[in-house]
Design brief:
Blueprint: H1 5-20, E1 27-37, E2 44-54, E3 60-64, E4 69-73, E5 75-89, E6 92-107, E7 111-120, E8 128-134, E9 138-139, E10 145-146, E11 151-156, E12 162-163, E13 167-175, E14 182-184, E15 191-199, E16 208-209, E17 214-218, E18 239-240, E19 256-257, E20 259-263, E21 277-283, H2 290-296, E22 298-304, E23 314-320, E24 324-329, H3 358-361, E25 365-368, E26 370-374, E27 377-380, H4 386-389, E28 390-394
Parallel strand pairs: 1-7, 17-18, 18-19
Antiparallel strand pairs: 1-4, 2-3, 2-5, 5-6, 6-7, 8-11, 8-25, 9-10, 11-17, 12-16, 13-15, 13-21, 14-22, 15-20, 15-23, 21-24, 22-23, 25-28, 26-27
The protein binds calcium ion (2 copies).
Length: about 400
Amino acid sequence: MKKHPFYLVTLFTALLCLTACKDPVETTIVTVNTTIDTSIDGLQLTEGTYTFENVSNAKQLTLAYPNQSIELEDGLYNLSFIGKGVYRHDSLSGEVEVQGVRSNLAVSGGNYTVELTVFVRNVSDGDFVIAELFLPGTFNEAGKQYNGDQYVRIYNNSDKVLYADGLVFMESAFMTTSKYKVVDPDIMNEAMAINTVAVVPGNGQDHPVQPGESIILCDNAINHKEANPNSIDLSKADFEWYFPDSKLDVDNPEVENLSIYYCYTKTIWILNKQGNRAYAIGRLPQGMTADRYIAEYKYDYTYELDNGTVSKPQSQYKFPNEWIVDAVNVGANNEWQWNVTASKLDMGHTYIGQNNTIAENIGKCVLRKVSHKDGSREVLLDTDNSSVDFTPAATPTLFTK
Ligand SMILES: [Ca+2]
Ligand SMILES: [Ca+2]
């Protein structure tokens, strides 16, 4: 038979197609089993995106939650998830961001299941947070209130070394259990009204704090157990607050004193034992000295009560919200009336007792929850909502050591 050129071309094309058109790439159906690891009760995922990145060619494919399966070319993949979750707390609902990641998944074999744990995404990439506030103190053996053993624990919630130098600790001027009808001027959306400004001394790098480590600020850095077996040993605290003009305060020369830029009292500073105020940590901006702060950030105001009574002129200090690193509103659950910080700093509140009696509060603290672990480092929960971030009426950690 005479060979026709057209036949040859067709045969050639067919042969070419057999090799080039054949799909040499195997694919696998990947199914993601997603679990939320959280200390927030009842948190439910609502939306999010899984991103699969092929390690060899950086090609990305996405899958929208609640879909759980996707067909991928066989290969090595990194998987990430960014999404949202909601929870209900008392009568309020809240939304948090969640995230999870798995690396170097060897996808092959037709079907592949990956277990993905997602965590609540903290509001910042990591900074200092208030981890614990021990406010009520203890009873002595005679059953009388014992003072001087209050402490605050501040935790490095990041994965890098942070310096405590210049960190400001402050107590709110207003009480969470006594709402004013009117405050004039009302500065809450720009600054926090405060009654004390206590600052960690140092030149910038004197006080390194390792990731996952804490510092303790306390009233009197002594071994309180010697005078009161119901109390704790604070002689190894990092800093204490001391008022040299006070006959009631004691100084441990071995423990550095906080610099008190301002305090409403000159005798002895006792944190509100009933637990009815807010606390915050922050930093002064570059170039802001103590003298300049004291000169420029006075807060003069009046307030009006529900019954129409207007206060005498008040004078405290204010700390701009953008300088605040972390804020926690504390208020007896049955007595709480309002938050005394902007809601963008703290959407909820935590409490030492349901009621603000010393008898109920004594020996208890508010304690920030652990969100998850990054290796051996505990990452504490920080969603800017103290109602979910804190365990109320908790046992202070220094009492369990
Ligand atoms: Ca003191
Ligand atoms: Ca001292």
